[in-house]
Design a protein that fits this description.
By secondary structure, this protein is of the alpha/beta class. The protein has helices at residues 2-16, 18-21, 88-95, 114-123, 134-141, 176-185, 190-206, 215-226, 254-273, 344-354, 360-366; strands at 27-30, 36-42, 52-53, 75-76, 82-83, 99-106, 146-150, 165-167, 234-239, 280-285, 306-311, 319-321, 342-343. Pfam families: DUF1501.
């Protein structure tokens, strides 16, 4: 059984890396729904407490004397939370009711390893060693979904038995004669031949890409794939660089620079989607959060609960969804972290159910042992 799985992954890797690196790599999917879903992994553990800032909590600023943001530096979300000013487009969407934030949320993971935390976030279980991704399991139960990953490899979230494509910008050019020779070489193996033809189709769909591998370029390209004829309706992206142990900054600094990249990427995605934005949901989430108190190098260390972003034309936004646990020492998880009160899987289940029409039975397969986690009925508009 393992050999069959490994062969499938090998064949998908050929497509992901453009047949032995002759072509680029991105991950896509298409479902029974015409609606669009974009998942963005924020690798490195974003500091949600300085993104969706609880300025109304009296214990926030005393624990962040150097990196804390004051109320007058924020874009006000409500009487308790404010948004980091680097997220300019996101704030506009929030005001328009197309963006919401979920705070004090976490995956089931409770340790501090980036690698294991990301695995649990992407495989949708409690076990870092689980080998397939939750989005791939969704593709398995809904064979009409079509996904693409904009990534240099195939991320765990879309790994598994179901087909998922991938693409990444490259500088190599494959000539027609070379393509024909490769296609002829792969004819003896149907799976290799199919993957090669699929990679060529993706490359043709991508067209000429300017700007290299910057996040806003990749996000724009995702929008192009998602609005192409016979293109996917699910895309997976990632943005690394969130591990702010030192020099995190407040209004300016490392975190602000990351948020600007994210904001510009989301804006490019929305612009490229055009009218399709009206039937889109985007989720951006990290493997875990960061400590409540700043450290001695004016940064933060690995924590537990975090904030996540959800945007799109079908999002019932303009709200921060949370069961706020508080930041006082007695309220902290293990005496240092924001305590988790919402499971990220609840948000993902809600989007699959309300936006992509997944049934409860399908959700039990996608997220095993999660039947007690509720679907949020007022997060997604009827679409």
């Amino acid at each position: 059984m393992d050999n069959i799985f490994d062969r499938r992954m090998f064949l998908k890797s050929l497509a992901a890396f453009g047949v032995c690196s002759a072509l680029p790599s991105v991950a896509f999917a298409k479902t029974q729904s015409a609606n669009i879903f974009v998942w963005i992994t924020l690798r490195g553990a974003m500091d949600g407490l300085n993104v969706v800032v609880p300025y109304g909590d009296k214990d926030y600023l005393p624990q962040r004397p150097s990196i804390g943001l004051h109320k007058n530096q924020l874009n006000k979300l409500d009487d308790f939370f404010g948004l980091h000013p680097a997220l300019k487009s996101c704030y506009q969407w929030y005001q328009q009711g197309e963006m919401a934030f979920i705070h004090a949320c976490a995956s089931p993971y409770r340790q501090r390893s980036h690698f294991d935390g990301q695995k649990v976030l992407e495989n949708g279980t409690e076990d870092p060693l689980h080998r397939d991704g939750w989005l791939n399991r969704f593709l398995s139960v809904d064979s009409k979904q079509h996904t693409i990953a904009i990534d240099s490899g195939l991320p765990l979230i879309v790994q598994g038995n179901a087909q998922a494509d991938s693409w990444y910008p490259h500088k190599l050019k494959i000539k027609q004669q070379q393509a024909e020779l490769l296609q002829e070489m792969y004819q003896s193996d149907q799976a290799l031949s199919d993957n090669f033809i699929n990679a060529l189709d993706i490359e043709k769909m991508a067209g000429h890409v300017k700007g290299g591998q910057q996040f806003h370029v990749l996000a724009q390209q995702a929008g192009k794939f998602l609005t192409s004829e016979n293109g996917p309706n699910i895309a997976v992206l990632e943005l690394g660089g969130w591990d702010t142990h030192a020099g995190e900054g407040a209004v300016k600094g490392r975190l602000a620079s990351q948020l600007k990249k994210l904001d510009e990427g989301l804006s490019a995605l929305k612009s490229q989607l055009g009218e399709a934005w009206s039937r889109t949901v985007v989720i951006a989430a990290s493997e875990f959060g960061r400590t409540i108190a700043e450290n001695g190098t004016k940064g933060t260390d690995h924590g537990t609960a975090n904030a996540m972003l959800i945007a799109g034309g079908t999002v019932n936004g303009k709200k921060v969804i949370t069961k706020w646990p508080g930041l006082a020492k007695s309220q902290q998880y293990k005496g240092r972290d924001l305590a988790p009160t919402t499971d990220i899987r609840s948000i993902c289940k809600t989007v699959l159910h309300s936006h992509l029409r997944a049934t409860n039975k399908q959700l039990d397969i996608v997220f095993p042992s999660s039947s007690e986690l509720p679907i949020m009925n007022d997060l997604i508009r009827n679409s």
